[in-house]
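hey so i finaly got around to running the thing on DNA polymerase IV from Tenacibaculum pelagium. pasting the sequence first so u can double check i didnt mess up the copy paste, my clipboard has been acting weird all day
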Amino acid sequence: MELQPPYRKIIHVDMDAFYASVEQLDNPGLIGKAVAVGGSEIRGVVSAASYEARKFGVRSAMSGVLAKRKCPHLIFVPPRYDRYKEISSKIRKIFYDYTDLVEPLSLDEAYLDVTENKKGNTSASMIAQEIRQRIWEELKLRASAGISINKFIAKVASDINKPNGQKTINPEDVIPFLEELPVNKFYGVGKVTAAKMHNLGIFTGLDLKKKSLEELSVLFGKSGVHYFNIVRGIHNSKVKPNRVRKSIAAERTFNENLSSEVFMLDRLDKIAEELERRMKKSNTKGKTVTLKIKYSDFTQQTRSKTTNHYIQLKKEFYPVVKELLYQEKLKNSVRLLGISFSNLNTEKKDPIWVQLKFDF
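ok and heres what it spat out for the 3d tokens, dont ask me to read them lol
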């Protein structure tokens, strides 16, 4: 089984240090400085870091304490998600000028299928360049892009010339590119699987490609077929426009760890109010309620219950939340609580696909 035409033309656009860049945009005094969005030098976790901060090893999901230790002059700013959503909406409007086949992955990245596009431009690379230029001219923010025949390769490519760059992997270059790619860069290969592959002497795509389908199936079960295909450039996941949201959540990290369930209920009451607001705003209902608990030692636990019918209002789901809290004894003091809805009443719509002449 080898890579065969017809191919699609996929762009992955990834904003550069998006949250931090928006903060620097709105506050010019932060330009050129090491900025961390979220967290603090006392508590919390960094949501995003400017490139100036990344030079010192500051990364997202890092504790504020460690971030400050790595970068003593780090400036912490609180996140402003409404502002990020506002900017993200403007970026997506630019995308929609070129194609309706846009699949947002988050506020700062998206896939675009430009095989057939509104501009009649047969060059996906030129479209990516134009989109990035427009984002800069209209919003004064930088973006990087990857262009190739499927989502997986485009996403990997977008990281190659970051920040403020792009990379095209042409059809004829896909196989050599994948053969040189470290296995931990492959879609679906996490840290545990990568470690297992390394122990088996599999370090690159070429090493992986040498394994037969039978061998990979024995070693990795059902995932073996996926690894067999993806190293050959076969990844047929389509760009899904208007991506269906799988869950809606609200959570809070506390300044002080909570040990009393009375205080936890007080915080959960406020979190439930926020979740109800988000459910109403998105006109969404759900069946599965999940309580997320993160302890002071950073271990995490979730407890879920599925109701018989779709619900949305706090008065409907808050009793379930309380039931989940008392379901079993807490292991430690609590630093974060969250409530989420999944199993939502959203419907999936499949796009129509048309193959045009291929020209990168």
